Structure formats: structure tokens, C-alpha cells
Amino acid sequence: MRRARPPADRHGRDRRAEVIAPPPGRERLTGDAPSTAVVGGGIAGLAAATALAERGVRVTLYEREDTLGGRLAGWPVHLTDGSGATMSRGFHAFFRQYYNLRGLLRRTDPSLSGLTPLPDYPLRHRDGLSDSFARVPRTPPWSALGFVALSPTFRPRDLAALDARAALPLLDVRVPEVYERFDHVSAEDFLRRINFPEAAHHLAFEVFSRSFFADPSHLSAAELLLMFHIYFLGSSEGLLFDVPREPFPQALWEPLAGYLRRLGAEVRTGSPVDRVRPAPDGTLTVEHDGAADRHQAVVLALDTTGLRHVVGASEELGDAAWRADVAALRTAPPFLVTRLWLDRPVRADRPGFLGTSGYDGLDNISVLDRWEGEAARRSARTGGSVVELHAYAVPEDAEPKRVQQHIVDRLHEVYPETADARIVDARHEWRADCPVFDVGGHHRRPAVRTPHPRVVLAGDLVRTGLPVALMERAATSGFLAANALLADWGIRGQTLWTVPRSGRSRTLAALARRAGRY
Questions:
Q1: Which of 132, 207, 243, 436 has the fewest CB atoms within 10 Å, measured from its CB?
Q2: What are the residue ranges spanned by the domains of the chain?
Q3: For residues 217 and 174, what is the distance between their CA atoms, to the nearest angstrom?
């Protein structure tokens, strides 16, 4: 029986959001469908597997870990008080600009009722200044102007000192031109060149740069400008976001895995892939767990380390230049996610999520029982609270236990009432597997297409040619990878949406182009 495919829609408020139509073709494969391996069960792999399986492709999804979700995976833990909980790699914000990610989630939750909005995204600096997005208009340019007008970090003398000519490129972000113009400049240098106020630098732009788990001095300014475009001057969706009502596995990935299985896909967790070998007949052998499966196509939807490993072990895959580019990929510095189960509540007026700056490594605080059902039920039962701390771009030589204690001490500084709480249990997750977008590195990042016509890449490390970032880049690249294979088979792929691919104001964009380059 033919399965209906959900319609492509953005479900957003921005009337200028752009549609990216796939190449024309038939609606669905008929007859002997090709077998395709999707290697990696994170957002990118799940998006690719979904688009392929919906169109009749025989999909086998291989995931190294026992759970799906990649960097949004979760797993059960047993706490010292005998209760159970779900641990994860940390908080993630589901922005309204994430059209393609949200479209993926709509497969199992059409109304996105499993997400709940947070009322604000406050940012706080140690010197006492703070910012809020709750009352900031969402439509550009009023969004940026409203933020400036409402922010205590922008003073009249700061605005007068701003180098308006140097800042004009913020108004004319286009992909891929933004990389051609600014990939050779660091985010920190760009902010210094435009004389951006130091306090606002910490509260706004450094928060964005650390979303990439990177220090602003090492992050490409092109990525920073792209973030500004996505959230401020390119989209009217705003900077407020949604979060899952339950932990990631229950809210997102278990339902999607069930959906894939109903489409006929085989989902194999705990199944790491070692290598991919092209065969003389044009098929590809996927080696895993001491076994070998034959497929007609492969999607490599891996993190940086995983992609380097598989490509490095697959000696016959791709050409020398492509393999060298993959081998050159690097990961961002380590980051820490600490989750604390406390025996008493955090003060009732504390926000569900707080971005912090100037606290010697503490980058944000989440009070999970404000919005996550599992944590809220525990809080109601015990009278306690569940708090999560993030520390990004931790120095490689830092001693882990000292960092762990340090950010807990900073929590006590930000929320003093937690100093008197007993820690019922604590979990510390150290990871170093996020891609780093170094200055000057964009041209070496791989694209969706590879030298092999039946091998494609997906993930947030992949160049897409579209104004997307973070989780949305992962989802978009997964759909693009599926579309590339489907187009070769004459099948129409997934329709995609993005924020506008250039600045919204023609007048301001013309001024920016006239200003020239650095």
C-alpha cells in the first residue's frame, strides 16, 4: 500500500522564508528499490533515512551507540537515592527558524505539541548587566533596533563609537559569499574592527560563538555573521525558542524510530560501521560488527571523528584531495555538561535557561524542572530541583574535577540559594566531538556530494550552501543528502525551507556592498 508523505511546509511566521524545491521526478520508487545504508543515527542520519524511506528506498540505519539522537541522545541512569532518570549531553534550543528540523519532528508530532516555548532567553554578565529577548520585536530591522533600545549594554556613546561602515556587512549576509568575504577573519577580530561595545560583545555575540563550542578568537567571522543573519536581520522568527517537554529519547527519537520501522526501514543501534568498500559492480560493502552488507548507496551522517575514522579505513573511497580534506577536519575543544539533582528547589523566579558570561567558564544554566516533564515530576515528588550547567571550549590541559567543581561554585554565585542545597546525585559528561569552524577553513569542509556518485555526506560539519546552522544544518544536510541520491534515481525529494538567503532590505544591502571588503 502506498504511504502518504506529509506535505512540505514551514509552519513559521516569516513570509519571506524561502522554499528550496528538489529536482523534479516521480513521487516514489516502484519495483526493486535500491538498498541504502545510512551510517549515523543523529539528526542528519534520521533526516536522510526518513526522506529515503518515505519514497520507497530500502533503508538500513546503522548507529554506533545504543540510542539514537547523536549529540541529542539520552540514556537511563540510576541515581543514588534509588530513583531513575534520563541523562543526556545537554540542553538544546529548538528555534522557530529550524524549519527542516521541525518538519522532521512533525512526522510523529504534527502539531509539535511535544515542544514547549520558553518565555525568555536572558543573558547575564558577571558585572551585573543583563539582556532579555522577551519584549524584543521579531521582525527585522525592528528586532535588532529593539534589542539595542532595550539593552542596558548599549549606551549612546557606544553606538556613536560603532564603525557603521565596517558593520554594514551584517546587513548583507549572503551564502556562500559571506564565506568568501569573511572566512579569513576571526569573530573576535570582526567585533573589534567594528568597535562593538565590549559588554554587548560578551552578552550577545560571544554567546553565539560558544554555540559552536569555540572561542571567538578561533571561530570564523563568516559563521558569526551567518548567526546574526539567521536570528536578527534575516528572519522574523525571533530569538525565542522551544524545548522538548520530555527527555530527548521519549519526546523525539523513539517515536521517529517507530515511524521509520513502519516505513520498512531497519534501525540498528549498537552497530558501529568500520569501513565502506566500493565493489566493481558499483555497489558498496558496509563492514560492521564483523559482518558485511551490500548496498547500492551510502549516506555517511557521522560526527567529525567518526567520519575521519570511516573514510580513513576505506582506502578505496573517494580521491586523494577529498580524503585529505576529511582527514584535516578537526573537533572543537572539550565541553562539559554537569547535571545536578538537588534536595531543594531553585528559587521560583529563576528562568528555565540562562546564558552567562564572565563567570570563568560557566556558559549557561538550565533549571530542567521548569519545562521538562521528567524533572518536574521528580521536583513535585521530592521538593528538589534538577539543574544543568554547561562549560564550553574548556582548555585541553584543564583538570576535569577542578572544572566540575569550579562551575558548581559559579552556580552558587549566580543562584546563591543552591549553595545550601544537598547534591543528591551529579553526572558529568565530557565530550570533544563537535566540529570546529576555524578561520579560513570553510573551503576544505566537505560538501554533500563526494567523488563517489553513490556516497553522500550529511551532518552539521557539511557545507550546504544555505543559511543554516547547528541542528538545522544537520537536518538540512540530511535531507539534501537524500535528495541527491533520489535525484539520481529520478525521484522527487524533500522540499526544504530556509530563512531568506540574503539581507531583507535592498537599500541596506546596497550600502553594504558599496562599503566593500576589508
A1: 132
A2: 18-70+247-331+445-498, 127-239, 333-431
A3: 23
Would you say 51 and 486 are in contact if contact means Cβ atoms under 8 Å apart? yes
Candidate from 226-240, 275-289, 427-441 with smallest mean pLDDT: 226-240
Q: Please state which architecture CATH assigns to domain 333-431.
A: Alpha-Beta Complex (3.90)
Q: Which residue has the cell 563567570?
A: 359
Integer CA distances (angstroms), 311 to 24, 40, 211, 290, 461, in order = 32, 14, 27, 18, 15
> Of 6, 31, 52, 179, which is closest to residue 481 (Cα–Cα)?
52
The answer to whether 18-70+247-331+445-498 and 333-431 have equal CATH topology is no
The hierarchical CATH code for the domain 18-70+247-331+445-498 is 3.50.50.60
Tens digits of residue pLDDT in 41-73:
999 999 999 999 999 999 999 999 999 999 999
pTM of the model: 0.94
- CA gap 73, 89 in Å, rounded: 7
**DSSP labels, 430-495:** EE--SB--BTT-GGGS-BSB-SSTTEEE-STTSB-SSS--HHHHHHHHHHHHHHHHHHHTTB----
Averaged pLDDT, 492-506: 88
Distance CA 461, CA 435 (A): 6
Let me know how long the chain is: 518
b/e code 77-99 from CB counts within 10 Å (16+ = b) = eeeeeeeebbbbbbbbbbbbbbb
Closest CA relative to residue 59, chosen from 220, 217, 256, 211 = 256
In the structure grid, which three cell numbers stand for residue 465, read together?
A: 550552501
